[in-house]
Amino acid sequence: MAIGGSYPSQGKCRGSVAAVAAVERPEGLQAGSALLTASAESTGLLHHGGRLREAAQRYSIPLSDWMDLSTGINPAGWPVPEPPEHCWARLPEDDDGLEQAARAYYDAEHILPTAGSQAAIQALPRLRPPSRVAVLDPGYCEHAAAWRRAGHSVLPVAAGDIQQTIEHCDVLLLTHPNNPTGATFAVEELLAWQARLARRDGWLLLDEAYMDLTPEYSLCRHSERRGLIVLRSLGKFFGLAGARVGFVCAHMDLLIALRTLLGPWSVSAPARWVATAALRDQRWQTHARRALQLQGERLQQLLDRHGLTPAGGTALFQWLRTPRAAELHRALATQGILTRLFEMPASLRFGLPGDQADWSRLDAALGALSSMGVEA
Ligand SMILES: Cc1ncc(COP(=O)(O)O)c(C=O)c1O
């Protein structure tokens, strides 16, 4: 593919809320919310799923009546016990067992906990001189935004064009499996790309936020190689997005530089305690993997039955590509079901319903679409 120019501004990644707000903000929208929306736009913050309060206001449906399918977070996350008192009173300590638990879970030689993988996404671009950064497109939009903000030249790359792109970039950034498309790559192929990049001091940066269900495809075990950086998150499979815990697996030298940049105590002691226990809980992990696999298949089949065949996805979400994405998003939102709308390409992401009542509700809402005049 031809490479050149810079990545279009964040508009591409803007989520449903901004796009729909422009045309259908109700007159009574409170000043506070308008202020928040305005400040998000002026600061360049990107929109994501999970903004239920805003949807509740826009569609005048009480918060408690919504079913939130707009994220890829496990609806039955790791059951969090009360952290011990000392977690609140003392500063976090590096030797509290978290790194050890994470190294074992991710099978990585060296690992650095961060305040969600987002903290690493924002900091890593500051560890390189101005570089040409190829970012999988469509993909998780925070990556391109962070590299662009740090002054790098960002090149969008389609999954099929990576091979030709390697020689023209210094950093290749892939979300693997990809969000929202679910695209995956063979381990040997990734390692070959990494070797080519490393010869020129380049990086292969992998965001494995959705890798927990398929650990056999993770490159964490190879992350000792210079120039290979793997990000992991406790937010998706473990359902602990609010705890803000993520990890970076990489060569020790890079982790030292990143840690210096992030400073001390970047993950709170209660979050470290919860993360350690979740990473050690193999029984829960085995059970959750099996259950999520079945639920992922169930969601795929449900959408298929309603003529909304997904173009891709993972066990935690399904991705539907359709020119009528905005219409579908709105029709489901009027029934209190929040999905994640993407503008480019026009598509919708569905997360997993939580319990049987939610599954039945989604089934009924999808069944009602044709009577509302909305087709796939
Ligand atoms: C692909 C991907 N990577 C990273 C993140 C950030 O996750 P966290 O900062 O909660 O670890 C997200 C969140 O939606 C994501 O979808």
Please give a structural write-up.
There is one protein chain. With about 375 residues, this protein is α/β, with parallel strands linked by helices. The chain folds into 2 domains: about 150 residues, Aspartate Aminotransferase, domain 1; about 200 residues, Type I PLP-dependent aspartate aminotransferase-like (Major domain) (Aspartate Aminotransferase, domain 2, 3-Layer(aba) Sandwich). It contains 14 helices and 13 strands. Strands 2-8-7-6-5-3-4 form a 7-stranded mixed sheet, with helices on both faces. A 4-stranded antiparallel sheet has the order 9-10-13-12, with helices on one face. Strands 1-11 form a two-stranded parallel sheet. Helix 5 packs parallel to helix 11 and helix 6 runs parallel beside helix 7. The longest helix is centred in the last third of the chain and has 24 residues. The protein is globular and about 60 Å long. The N terminus is likely disordered. It binds pyridoxal-5'-phosphate. Pyridoxal-5'-phosphate binds next to helix 6. The site of pyridoxal-5'-phosphate (PLP) has 13 residues, from helix 6.
